Every structure is written in structure tokens, then in C-alpha cells.
UniProtKB/TrEMBL annotation:
CDD domains: BAR_Endophilin_A (cd07592)
Protein localization: Cytoplasm; Membrane
UniProt lineage: Eukaryota, Metazoa, Ecdysozoa, Arthropoda, Hexapoda
Predominant place of localization: cytoplasm
This protein's name: BAR domain-containing protein
A GO BP entry: synaptic vesicle uncoating
Length: 359
């Protein structure tokens, strides 16, 4: 730095301290200029905050944004450009629905409805990516240019004006030579002119800035319109699925017992000794439940009195079950006990191994 430049910096510092600490009066600019400065400061804050909030609107997940920024930084350091796309929430939800809809299977109406909604959310995610590109290109990029070019230039002229004003006031206060004061005054006037013109052009550029807002609003309208059409079709499809599900007849379901699964149960083992009377079912259909009706003959019906209604039920058994005989109902039916339950069963379905005692 030349000696003249160093001397100027010392003068500015001296004047600044004198005004702040010593109460010296500096050159005051008019209220119009001060209002322009205020609005310019607000614009600086606005542009910075508006860019940040718009990015948050387009990419609301802070963790995903931080991850993308880290990947981008690492890519720059390594010299390898990597494309890192922000995961849209519609796309994440769509992947979940599509995955489990396919896992449930095509025979499930609920599964097909999940797939339909997943496909619609995928379309909405693609529309959101188009909105991102549109806003970044037509709104965020102009704001960035405004911040890094126009605002930067205006703030440079204002800073230079402040320095030249301090130098001018310092030389006046110290009663420097006339040519020095005149030279400082000319530079002060030049910076004042540049700062005023720069701020005026910035603040009177409403047409361009409002046009950018129009572009933003149009992009949002287009996004929501497309999403609305997608959702209308989806709602119609889901209503059809609901009607289809309501019209589908429900199939009867009988839960399987341990006996159906051929699981050996306590009290049904072969070869039990000391029991009263046992018979060994030799069923016609292997490993299937047989339900014996409780009113197949007159003799059986007469046995179903109030005294034994609790025991007149259908007796379930599978092959090789051991049934304790209680009595013969008639020539075709027995009453027996199996696993603590009493019931009736046809004689033709079993093989009697230990007959009832004759009366």
C-alpha cells in the first residue's frame, strides 16, 4: 500500500473513532438517502432469506439437504461430479406402497389398491421434480444473480461512500490543505452519486422482481393442477376397488385344530391300559375332519333330551383316535367320549376293538 493510501486509512480510522467516542459531528446525508439505505438493507436480507426459505419449501427435509450438501462438497474436493437427487416424500411413500402391494399378491384387492396409489404418488413426485427445476431456473437463479451482482455492487459503492465521507470529514476537521480537502470532496461526491444511482436502480426494479414472483406462482399452480388431476383419477379408481371388495362374496373359513395338523394330543395315544372301553376309528378319508350329524335317526333324536343336551354334540375325530364307548344308540350309531367331549358317531366309520358289555 502506498503512503498516501495508508495515510487515508489512518484518517478514516481517526475520524470514525472521533465520531463514535468523542462525539464529533460527521457530514449528514438527507432523509431520502437514509430511506434508500434502509430499503436496500431490507432487500439484502430479503434476498438471502427468500432463497433459503424457497429451498426449504422445495426440499423440506433438513437431513436430506445436509446430506446432499455434504456429497456435493466431497464431489468438488475429489473432482468427481455426482448427481444427487432430493428424495421427494411422495416418491418415498410410493415406494413403500408399491413394495408391500406387490408382496401381498395380485389376488388381494387391497394390494392392487396400494399399487394404484403408489403409481399415482410416483407421478406426483415427478411433477414435483419439474416444479423444482422450474423454480430453481426462473426464480432462485435470478435471485442469486441479484445477490452476487447488483446488490454486491450497490453495497460496494455504499462502503466506498462511507470511507470517502470519513476521509473528507477528517481533513475538514484537521483543516488540511485546500487542494486536499477539495480532492476528498470530489471523491465523496462521486461515491455519493454512484451509491444513489445504484440503490435507485435496485429499488425501482419492481417489474422484473414481480415477474419472477409470477413465474413462481404459475409453477405452483401448474404443479397443484397436475396433482389434482392425478388425485381425481386415483379417487375414482380407489372407489371402484372399494365397490369390488364390497361385492366380492366372503368365503367361509373354519380354523384348523391341532387334530387337523396331525399333532398328537394328550389322552389320545394308542395302547392306553385300564380304560373302560375303547374303539379305533378307521376313517374313510385320511387326515380329514368328519362331522357327525346329531339327528340322523329316530332313536338318536329320542336320546336328545333336556337331561343330556350338553352332551349331544357332533364328535370330531381323525384316523387312529381312541374313543371311549358309552352306549349304543341304535343299530347304526354309538355314543362315545373323546378328549373330554361326548358325542355321537356312526358305527360304519369306526372299528370296535373292545365291545360294550352285553346287558
Amino acid at each position: 500500500m502506498a503512503f498516501a493510501g495508508l495515510k487515508k486509512q489512518i484518517n478514516k480510522a481517526n475520524q470514525y473513532v472521533t465520531e463514535k467516542m468523542g462525539g464529533a459531528e460527521g457530514t449528514k446525508l438527507d432523509l431520502d438517502f437514509m430511506e434508500m439505505e434502509r430499503k436496500t438493507d431490507v432487500t439484502v436480507e430479503l434476498v438471502e432469506e427468500l432463497q433459503a426459505k424457497t429451498k426449504e419449501y422445495l426440499q423440506p427435509n433438513p437431513t436430506a439437504r445436509a446430506k446432499m450438501a455434504a456429497v456435493k462438497g466431497i464431489s468438488k474436493l475429489s473432482g468427481q461430479a455426482k448427481s444427487n437427487t432430493y428424495p421427494q416424500p411422495e416418491g418415498i411413500l410410493a415406494d413403500c406402497m408399491l413394495t408391500y402391494g406387490k408382496k401381498l399378491g395380485e389376488d388381494s384387492i387391497f394390494a392392487s389398491a396400494l399399487v394404484e396409489m403408489g403409481d399415482s404418488l410416483k407421478q406426483m413426485a415427478d411433477v414435483k421434480y419439474s416444479l423444482d427445476d422450474n423454480i430453481k431456473q426462473n426464480f432462485l437463479e435470478p435471485l442469486h444473480q441479484l445477490q452476487t451482482k447488483d446488490l454486491k455492487e450497490v453495497m460496494h459503492h455504499r462502503k466506498k461512500l462511507q470511507g470517502r465521507r470519513l476521509d473528507f470529514d477528517c481533513k475538514k476537521r484537521r483543516q488540511a490543505k485546500d487542494d486536499e480537502i477539495r480532492n476528498a470532496e470530489e471523491k465523496f461526491a462521486e461515491s455519493l452519486q454512484l451509491a444513489q444511482v445504484g440503490m435507485y436502480n435496485l429499488l425501482e426494479n419492481d417489474v422484473e422482481q414481480v415477474s419472477q414472483l409470477v413465474t413462481f406462482a404459475e409453477g405452483m399452480l401448474d404443479y397443484h393442477s397436475q396433482c389434482s388431476e392425478i388425485l381425481k383419477v386415483l379417487v375414482e379408481t380407489l372407489n371402484e376397488k372399494r365397490e369390488e371388495a364390497a361385492a366380492r362374496p366372503k368365503s367361509e373359513f373354519v380354523p384348523k385344530t391341532l387334530a387337523d395338523l396331525n399333532i398328537e394330543m394328550l389322552g389320545s395315544q394308542d395302547g392306553m391300559n385300564g380304560g373302560p372301553h375303547f374303539l379305533n376309528p378307521n376313517r374313510l378319508n385320511n387326515s380329514h375332519h368328519h362331522i357327525f350329524p346329531i339327528a340322523v335317526s329316530d332313536a338318536f333324536s329320542r336320546k336328545n333330551t333336556d337331561a343330556n343336551k350338553a352332551h349331544t354334540a357332533m364328535l370330531h375325530s381323525i384316523e387312529n383316535d381312541v374313543i371311549t364307548l358309552i352306549q349304543r344308540v341304535d343299530e347304526n350309531w354309538f355314543e362315545g367320549s373323546l378328549n373330554g367331549r361326548n358325542g355321537y358317531f356312526p358305527q360304519s366309520y369306526v372299528q370296535v376293538t373292545v365291545p360294550l358289555p352285553s346287558n
